[in-house]
Amino acid sequence: TPPPQNQQQEDSPINRFQQYLRINTAHPNPDYTSAVTFLKTQAHSIGLQTQTLEFTPNKPLLLVTWPGSNPTLPSILLNSHIDSVPAEPSKWSHHPFSAVRTPDGKIFARGAQDDKCIGVQYLEAIKTLKNEFSFEPIRTVHISYVPDEEIGGLDGMAKFVKAKEFEELNVGFVLDEGQASTSNEFRVFYADRSPWNLVIRALGTPGHGSRMFDNSAMENLMKSIEVITKFRGNQFDVVKAGLAANSEVISVNPVYLKAGIPSPTGFVMNMQPSEAEAGFDIRLTPMTDLDLLKKRIAEEWAPATMNMTYQITEKGPLRDYMGQPLVTPTNDSNPWWSVFKQAVTAAGGKLAKPEILPSTTDARFMRQMGIPSLGFSPMKNTPILLHDHNEFLKDTVYLEGIKVYESIIKYLSSFEEASR
Ligand code: MET
Ligand SMILES: [Zn+2]
Ligand SMILES: [Zn+2]
């Protein structure tokens, strides 16, 4: 549990952000109930409608709606996920669920960048537009707060996009999370890389720890890891040579190793095991040749000739319903793109060249449905700390982000021409 709070408790945008951050929605036991209660209360205080959907028991999805004057036009959907990855408090300078603001304005918390900031910024922006500027949207604006994004979204956004409740929203354009920018320009993402979880297993000859023989499970696994490491190095070399961005190559990173015969004090040291296993996080670009990579895994990374087996788990869609890569155009063919760009410019912001996101978001499920979706989290001059220790966001950056969303929501919701 986080230490007691003795920071100021006034009702302000920063304080509301801190309150949301203090709700522990980290896996493996995210407190979705408290988060939904908090967000619902905020939405109601602004005068917005809410609906809680539960496609999976105890995994609520909150839908907030600001009705537009022309409900026949496709709506705008602003998405964020409620859950976070875990945090190890002992490795943080401040408790990850205390949301402490340091004298230089940094708010430390798991989720500060990924992605609780945007969740409350959406609400703050609407609050100002609605209650201070009496702005009335033409298109309906929805906010979705979804569970389980960090574990693949199968019980969250994946179910939502297939539900009649989603169809009824008639969504024309989606904004989802992006990543922080270390420069003075905001980053925007037109595609994600998609994850494959790869597990490779080696079987081999067991034997005495002192013996030298061929074809042990460990030897086979290590040879395979060498091949994978070489592939990883080649991909990384392309990046290091400046020929591609990180997100434009395939990443493959080992995330666990499992082998050995357990003993009460650790592992048996004088036995060579007959099984060994390794897990990899692979991220594919939208253009990756899937068959080619599968062939490489079968023939080079886990060859049956070396007593290896493998399992690929695809975490979500890789192609849309037309069989096309999940990419949202950022050119004149997509009218939403120009409106979005104008809105950021009008707020005094500069946009960097659109990128592929190195990681993965729920936007892929909406792109799969053919809905144009951009990834955007208005954080500039900010180190990229998602999933890292000491994740923080500066108060000034957070507040400026609200202003940017005010402009974006105003522009998108008053844009009448485009259908989809
Ligand atoms: C496994 S789906 C994606 C989860 C998370 N957003 C990531 O990029 O790692
Ligand atoms: Zn995220
Ligand atoms: Zn994340």
Automatic annotation (TrEMBL):
UniProt keyword Zinc, yes or no: yes
Gene3D superfamilies per UniProt: 1.10.150.900, 3.30.70.360, Zn peptidases (3.40.630.10)
GO molecular function: aminoacylase activity; metal ion binding
Keyword presence, Metal-binding: yes
InterPro entries linked to this entry: Aminoacylase-1_M20A, Bact_exopeptidase_dim_dom, N-acyl_aa_amidohydrolase, Peptidase_M20, Peptidase_M20_dimer
Cofactor: Zn(2+)
Name recorded for this polypeptide: Peptidase M20 dimerisation domain-containing protein
Organism: Nyssa sinensis
